[in-house]
Amino acid sequence: MTDLLKYAIELVAVLLLALGIKGLSKVRSARGANQLAALAMGLAVFGLLLNYLGTSGISIAAWTWIIAGTLVGGVLGVITAQRVPMTSMPETVALFNGCGGMSSLLVALAAALYPAVLEAAGPVAVVSIVVSVFVGAITFTGSIVAMAKLQGWLSTPDWMQSRARHAVNIALAVGSLVGAVEMLRNADSSTGLWLVVVASGLLGIGVTLPIGGADMPVVISLLNSYSGVAAAAAGFVVGSQLLIVAGAMVGAAGLILTQVMCNGMNRSLVSVLFGGALGATAATGGGGGEYTNITSCSVEECALTLEAAERVVIVPGYGLAVAQAQHTLREVTRVLESAGIDVSYAIHPVAGRMPGHMNVLLAEADVPYEQLQEMDQINPEFPATDVVLVLGANDVVNPQAKSDPNSPLYGMPVLDVQDARTVFVVKRGMSAGYSGIKNDLFELANTSMLFGDAKKVLGDLLVELKDLGLGKK
Amino acid sequence: MFVEFLWVLLLGSLLGLELIGKVPPTLHTPLMSGANAISGITVLAALTAIIKAGDNTVVLLLGSISLGFALFNVIGGFLVTDRMLAMFSRKPARKENR
After folding, report:
1. Which of A1-15, A188-202, B66-80 has the lowest mean pLDDT?
2. Separation CA B38–CA A363 (nearest Å)
3. Do A421 and A384 contact (CB within 8 A), yes or no?
4. In the list A100, A352, B16, B74, which could disulfide-bond A249, CB 3.0-4.6 Å?
5. CB A143 within 8 A of CB A104
6. What is the 8-class DSSP label of residue A374?
7. Residue B46: how many other CB atoms lie within 10 Å
8. Residues on chain B touching A72 (C-beta within 8 angstroms)
9. How far is CA A10 from the centre of its chain?
10. Residues 34 to 93 of B: which have CB under 8 A from any A CB?
11. DSSP secondary structure string for all residues of A130-176
C-alpha cells in the first residue's frame, strides 16, 4: 500500500515538474509554472519522508541533521533571494547552480566512502558515483568561477588565453579518468576517489576561467544543464527514479536553452567553450582601425532634439545594466511621455547581462510591458523614428553586421538604428564593444556621442528636460 | 533494476528535450533560474543519505551539508525566479486598475 502511494506521489511530482518547465517558457504562464514546480518539489520531499516513515522509520539523529541542514540552507536561500539586486541576477543563478552541483558531489562522496551504508557497491554504483562526483565538481567550481568573473572578483590570467590551457585541461580530464579506473579496480582504497574530486574540480576552473564575461550566460546555462546531469547521477547512486527523471529533464532542457541562447548571440557552443575571448582573434579580422569623424554633443543638445521629437526609441544595453541606470531611464521616459512623445524600447535578444535580463530590469523599473519591442518588430519602424537613444549598447547596433561580409559580426542580428533620423549614443568612452570591433555607427553623420556613465548622463538629461519645461503639467 | 533506471533516464531526457521548443528571449533568464532551482532536486538524495546513515556520523554530516547546499539552491532559486516573474505579471494587473 505504501509502495502504491509512493509511486503515485512520485508520478504526480514528475508530472508537475514537467508542466512547470513547460509553463516557464511562456510569458503568461511562467509565474504559475514556477510555483507549480516548487509545489512539485515539496511534494517529492513529502513523499520521500512519508515512504521512509512507513518502512524503515527515521531516527531522531537523522531528524536532527535534516532540520539542521534545512534551516541553514533554507534561511540562507531566502535571504539571498530577497537581497540580491536584479542587476546581479547572472551571478546569483551561477551561485545557486554551483551549490546544486556541490550537493550531488557530497552525496556521491558519502556513498563512495561508505558503500555499505547507502547500498552503493558494485561497478554500476561506482560508475554512477564517478559521474556524480565528476559532473558535480565541475558544476561547482565552474559556477563559482563564473560568479566571481561576473562580480569582477576574477579576471582571466594571460596564460589562460594561450593554447597551453587545452593541454592542462586534457591532462585534468585524463587524471579524472585514471582516478575513476582506480576506483573500479580497487574498491577499498579512496585514492582514486580523491583524484577524481581534485582533478574534476580543477577542470571546472580550467574550462570556465578563459571564457569572456559576455559569454558567461551561455556557460552558466550549460553548467545548469550539468547540474541536472549530476542530479540524475546522484539518482542512480541512491536509487531514486524521481531524481533521475527530474535531473534528466533539467539536463536536456538546459542544453536546449543553451543552444537557443547561442543562436541569439550568433555564437556556436564550441567557440564559446574552446575559443576563449572573441576579441583576441576577431579584432584583426576586419573593420578595425581608428575612429575618425566622431561627433560628440552635450546633454543640452540632446535634450533639445528630444523635445522636438515625436517618436523616440530607446536601445538599452549591457552598459545600462552595469550602471544600474534603468530607474533613471524610466524617469526620463516618463517626462518624454508626459510631453506627448511616443516612447518605445528596442530589446535585442541578448541585451543586458544575459538574454532576457534587460526585460527583467526594465520591468523592475516599471516600464510597461507593451512598450518593450523585440528586434523583428521594431526594425521596420526605425525609418519613421525621430530619435534613437542607445544606452550602453555597442555590437547589437553595429551596421557592419549587415553591410560588411568580412566583419566577424557579419550575420549577427542587429537593430537598424542608423535608419532613424538622429541617433544619440551614450557611452563611457571610445573603447570597443565586447567583440573588440569598431562600430561604424559612431561615424555616421546622424550619430552623436554623449560620453559618460549612463546613469549620470540620464540624470543630467532629466534635469535639462525639466528645465525645458517638459514633464510639468 | 539498472536497466529500468536507464529507461527512466532516457525517457526523462527525451521529455526535457521536448519541453522547451520556442522560448521568447524575455524568458531566458527566468527559465534558466527556474530550471536551476529544479536541479536542486538532489535534496532527495541528501535526505536519503541522512535517513540511511544510521549512526555513521560522517555520512550524517555529509548528507546534512549536502541538504543545506541543495535547499539553498531550491529555495533561493524558486524565490528569485518568482521575484523576477512577479515583475512581468504585475503590469497588466495595474493597467486594469487604472
Report:
1. A1-15
2. 24
3. no
4. B16
5. no
6. E
7. 32
8. 68
9. 30
10. 34-56, 58-89, 91-92
11. HHHHHHHHHHHHHHHHHHHHHHTS----HHHHSTHHHHHHHHHHHHH
Active site annotation includes A453: no
How many residues comprise chain B? 98
Q: What is the pLDDT of residues A210-266, one digit of tens each?
A: 887 667 888 888 999 999 999 999 999 988 889 999 999 999 988 988 888 887 777
Which of B44, B58, B64 to probe by mutation at the A interface, max A CB count within 10 Å?
B44
In this prediction the pTM is 0.82
| Cβ-Cβ contacts under 8 Å, B5 against chain A | 235-236, 239, 241, 244
B95 touches chain A (CB under 8 A): yes
Is residue A323 pLDDT above 50, yes or no? yes
Question: Among the listed ranges A80-89, A379-388, A435-444, B58-67, which one has the minimum average pLDDT value?
Answer: A435-444
B96 vs A: CB within 8 A: no
Contact A155, A148 (CB under 8 A): no
Task: With CA atoms as reference, report the closest residue to A16 among A37, A42, A31.
Answer: A37
* Sequence letter at residue B57: T
Please report the pLDDT score of residue A369 as a whole number: 79
**Gap from A39 CA to chain B (nearest CA, Å):** 10
As a whole number of angstroms, the distance between CA A323 and CA A233 comes to: 41
Helix (H) or strand (E) run with residue A385 in it: none
Q: How far is CA A232 from the centre of its chain?
A: 22
